[in-house]
Design goal:
The structure is a single chain. It is globular and about 35 Å long. The chain has one domain: Alpha-Beta Plaits. Helices cover about 30% and strands about 25% of the residues. By secondary structure, the protein is an alpha+beta fold. Strands 2-3-1-4 form a four-stranded antiparallel beta sheet. Helix 1 runs antiparallel to helix 4.
């Protein structure tokens, strides 16, 4: 079975990007860190729009993202984060064609 990959773009209400991040830290970060089917997860801040978060996720298989959506942690996250977002988030399923692997140090100094 092939891997699953997603790009997600969240636009927070003005000045609320850090709040969105804290909600993610609270509900989803521990689950993602412990999930062996989550091979990679990159949470990035847009350098030109200070209210935008862009996420890249790589899963071991096509069913893994569906499993995440069914978790109670995801429901709690979505209930708390939705009022902080400026409209719908953009979810894009993509087919990974090539990757260079290796350790990446975040420029923002946040490692987790």
């Amino acid at each position: 079975m092939s891997k699953a990959a997603l790009f997600i773009r969240h636009k927070a209400l003005p000045g609320k990007r850090e709040h969105v991040r804290r909600v993610w830290d609270k509900h989803l970060r521990p689950q993602i860190a412990d999930n062996p089917r989550h091979e990679a997860y990159y949470c990035c801040y847009d350098d030109h729009d200070f209210d935008v978060i862009v996420v890249f996720q790589l899963y071991t298989d096509q069913d893994a993202p569906k499993q995440v959506l069914e978790l109670p942690e995801y429901a709690a996250y979505w209930a708390e984060v939705s009022p902080l977002l400026a409209g719908d988030s953009d979810f894009r399923s993509v087919s990974l064609q090539w990757a260079k692997t290796g350790a990446v140090k975040p420029s923002g100094g946040y490692v987790g």
